[in-house]
């Protein structure tokens, strides 16, 4: 069963192999019917119960997140939005939401994400629909496209820490969710780089440097747990924040053949270490 099927998506038929499912996920643009309750685990009150999600070739599906006791959220931004399901979750989770924004690396991805958000609110009440229609959707380097926006109460980031293979193409499938390039100018601490947490660190710094976070606001980071939690918390501290863990879960690594090799090369360079649990891999 694919990640899409486990999370409430009705997928086109395949022959059931891992390779065929992954090919289906990354073949140009696909459209899926989403059952909100099956995907997010709760019944919707503000957004549609069933809606269409379009996936571009660069999309990476996201699981729903909890509010985590972070207080009233009136303005919400998401970085690396992929299919836009994180913003749909925010529209449902935070009843006082009045402004939202999303960014991703590719123009095609943010355009598709905005369309998905509108699809999810076609039958919603007027306020939710107006917030969705006014959503800011811009491509670019993490939070940089949002420079000049009013500060947010909650910023959600789901940035990659997957090494980009030497032959990788950032416009191709899973490699669109890889750790990106040389960030020397960002003066990132070595312990952050060693654990491939550079993009998370830079995003946290951008939130401060661009004045995009309210004084009482928070950044919610979704990080692949291939490095120790202590390394993640140390990175957060170095960026000038007080960190805490809100939740942990297991996830089968998608496209393991392409991904794990990159980590192996990373570790050969004396960095890391990284770890995977074979007991939770797909057979």
List strands and helices in order, with pairings.
Blueprint: H1 3-6, E1 9-10, H2 18-25, E2 30-35, H3 36-40, E3 50-55, E4 75-79, H4 85-93, E5 99-104, H5 107-120, H6 126-133, E6 136-139, E7 152-157, H7 190-194, H8 198-209, E8 213-221, H9 229-238, H10 256-268
Parallel strand pairs: 4-5, 4-7, 5-6, 7-8
Antiparallel strand pairs: 1-2, 2-3
Any overview of this molecule?
- It is a single chain.
- With 283 residues, the protein is of the alpha/beta class.
- It has ten helices and eight strands.
- The strands form two sheets. Strands 6-5-4-7-8 form a five-stranded parallel β-sheet, sandwiched between helices. A three-stranded antiparallel β-sheet has the order 1-2-3.
- The longest helix is centred in the middle third of the chain and has 14 residues, at 107-120.
- Mean pLDDT is 76; it is low at 1-28, 57-67 and 168-179.
